[in-house]
Amino acid sequence: WFLLVAIPYVEFIGYVFHRFLDHSHLIPRIEYEHWKHHFKLYPPKNLRPDHPYVKVKAIEYKTFGPLALALPFVVLSFENALPMALGSGLYAILFWYFHRLFHLRKHILSKKKYFLYLQKIHDNHHINTTKNYTITNPIMDFIFGTYAHKTPKYKNTFANFEKQFEQEVKSGKFTGSVHKTKTGT
Questions:
Q1: Half-sphere exposure of residue 184, counting CA atoms within 13 Å on the CB side?
Q2: Pairwise CA distance, residues 86 & 100, whole Å
Q3: Which uninterrupted H or E stretch holds 91?
Q4: 158, 181, 161, 157: which is closest to 169 by C-alpha?
Q5: pTM of the model
Q6: Chain segment 62-87, per-residue pLDDT in tens
């Protein structure tokens, strides 16, 4: 039973974290690291570069995940919380493993139809960062109206992004606003 609850729980937590922390101004350090992932390490024109996968270094990523896994212990009895936390932890590992594979060229899943479908959804997110926030299952994007199946035409609205955020970070003035476009996204 716990996987039936753990899977949507992890998908929901991942969606909320990605949409409202990674892509907002709430915690500039998280946003900065995430935009580095989007536009420096894996830009839309090179989503699967030659270098090995590079993890985001923000300490917040190592904090919020375990806190989310601990939440069931606060609201459920121990005998229900333990399997829920274990199921969530296992699914979260799969969740992050898939994300890593999305940015690699050749691997065990690189020719599997469902994986290619998920990879396309993720690629679309790198091109249009206001859509497709989920990683392993697009259900949350369907529920919250952020799903986009078609690959949008890429427009480089972030031409000066890298230079600007590097300058802001070095000067200690990073506000999380460097990715704003004319549409405000």
A1: 0
A2: 21
A3: helix 78-102
A4: 161
A5: 0.79
A6: 677 777 777 777 777 778 778 888 88
